[in-house]
Amino acid sequence: MDNARILVVDDDREIARAIEKNLKIEGYEVVKAYNGLEALDALVNSNIQLILLDVMMPKLDGLSTTMKIRESKNIPIIIISAKSDDSDKILGLSMGADDYITKPFNPAELVARVKSQLRRYMHLGYMDDVRSSKTQVGGLCLDTDAKQLEVDGETVRLTATEYKILELLMTNAGMVFSSEKIYERVWNEPAYSVENTVMVHIRRIREKIEINPKEPNYLKVVWGIGYKIEKH
Amino acid sequence: MDIKLKNISRKKSTKTAVFILTVILIVLTVVQFQFVSYNDIIPESLIIREYSQSEYFLTQEVRNAWYEINSVMENRGEVPKSAHYYYFISDGEKTYSNVEGKDKNFFKQFDKAFYSYEMGTWTIGENTNPGGITKFYVSDGYTIYISYPDEFINEKQQEWEESRNILVPFAVRVGVVAVLILTSIIFLMVQTGKNQLDDEIHLTKIDSIFSDVLFSFFIPLAAFWIIGISNLYYSGMSHVRQMYSAVWIGIITAFISVMCGIILLSLTRKAKSGRLFKHTVVYLVLYKIYDFFKSLYDGRMFERYPLTKSLFYRQLVFITSSAFLVFLTFLFFLLYVPLFLIPPVVEIVIIYWYIKGNNKTFEDIDKGFNESLGEQMKAERMKIALVTNVSHDLKTPLTSIISYVDLLSKEEDLSETVRDYVNVLSEKSNRLKNIVSDLFDLAKSTSGDIPLELESLDIKKLIEQTLADMEDEIEKSNLQIKTKLPENSLNIYSDGKKLYRVFQNVIDNALKYALPGTRVYVELEEIDGKAVAKIKNTAGYEMDFTAEEILQRFSRGDKSRTTEGSGLGLSIAESFTNVCGGKFKVEIDGDLFKVQISFNLDK
Predict the structure, then answer these.
(1) Which residues pair with A80 in a beta bridge?
(2) Complex ipTM > 0.90
């Protein structure tokens, strides 16, 4: 797995080279391409496990490339783009990308995301073992029998409260819960000014399950309303 | 010396002193006149040296005597025994006299005051007023002699001279004072409006009153003075009441002369600055009327729009010529009937010309309008594209910089110095990343090209969430946050993510720039259907800028701090608040820095 081969696609050769170097330090093999067409060729020519893809490129742009790849393959695609609007992210993810990183990125975070996607792909991608006691959202997998959480195949230790919160939110992924509701359901007590208490736990959970807790992928605050687990 | 004199004479204090002096002199003069009138002084004594020559003598004494004598003649009365004069009257039959048997020579010896009427002519002794005597009506056939003994005349002459002794110095005084008053008024008129600094005319507040209004104040003032004086003047003998009257007249005169002085000087200033006539109600009204009629045909309102202007002129020609043709129709109708068919035909031609020309112009206008609309859209698109492209062009090299700095820092065989340099590069490139990111957020939100996700949310909850989210920063900051939030929720209709950025930036700003150890206050309350949030902190440095300056892009509170942040935080907060439909206000009061964010409550 450590020798996974990654395709880096960016029309800026220096950026591609820097990414290559960073990934090689982590022990990955890297294939480079400088536009969408080259990327498609590389996919045919070598066995690729993950793609890092720029959006604004000549000949064939990243989004079209993503669509083309998705016609035949389900390997993880991480988009790396200078476009940082929410709408761009949503567009990229809806085209079939698995993650979206904005430029300029933090190299460590990039590597962490690559690892996360690869783990998920290796562990979960082939797993057909979807028992009814398991709730899955993206790379999160909650086993309600074992009261355990796996992030990208790795078990994460949660406190009882954290587990209960996550269970509530994950089994109702996409639904927004106010802090009062969370408190009443998790603590079984009437809620009175509990925003801070709930938020403290949310932050702790985030640190355990998110790659970048400042820009969470799963556990999101709906400002002025409540909290939710984003549907994946 | 000249300059010095100019400086002194233009000083405000000098002018005020002269003004007050003038008023005092005027008051003194008026009161002096009153004093003279109280002293029973006959003004004539100023001009006529001898009593016997005066008109006063003729009209008072002689006239009285003549009246008494006439009464005797016509059996209507008698001459009193105490009469000061000798008389003789005869109509040829009857004769009366108080000196029996004396002839004309007896009377003639008192040549200073000998008045006779013989054969229709008067002699009037030394008197200088021949005209005065002719007003005495006497029957033609009478002979009259009146004489005053010297003792009487001398006695009267003495009184006359006493009066003179008062009057002559008084006249001299009045003359001198009048010259003084005139001089100081001229001085004031010359100097008014000037100051020591330049030779310009400086207008004051009172000069903003229209000249004619100002001038018309003279009338009520004069009326007030005359009525005041005639009411206050006391003609009795009591000295106390005379004094009292004098004081009142003095006060009223002082008041009126101050007012008149102010008006006169104001008018003078306006005259000097050339505004005397132009700045009048009459001029303005007349000018407005003139200008209105002028604007009807000179087409000036269409100055900047040549197409509309041509429409306007065409319309003018059309109306004028049509009116003329109507007139011609009537004329021809009266003169020779068949001719009156011509004007309608001409009118048809004119209508054709008018419509054709107008259609062409309308077409041009439409074309121009579409062009400008298209250009505007293009410019708008260009702007948005520019922001996107510049953003991409900045971020791409920055990505390389950050990546290679990171790779560089991973190299193991770096010297201490190089590692130090790499750390600086890393820190600065990350800051640049933040700035670029903030800059484009701001650019997008100010250009309005920013998608909003509006929903009903609780601003109280949002503030609590934001504070909880920022707990780490707050703990690190060495500051205490004091919250005062309402019990119930305050729902507003807004974009939660943007609003979170707003509060995050404002609180972040407070944490960065507050004096260590102080408290930051975060308050929320409902005021008049609005949710009003206030964030207050005590600045840790002197805020030598205004609330407007701090919101201007790139301005930073503390100019010496350059290590972190983009300086755009508050600008972004303001812009996001506005985009989300709220109001953002900064107040600086001494060391207190206060941000107020308000939203209409969602009903």
Answers:
(1) A54, A101
(2) no
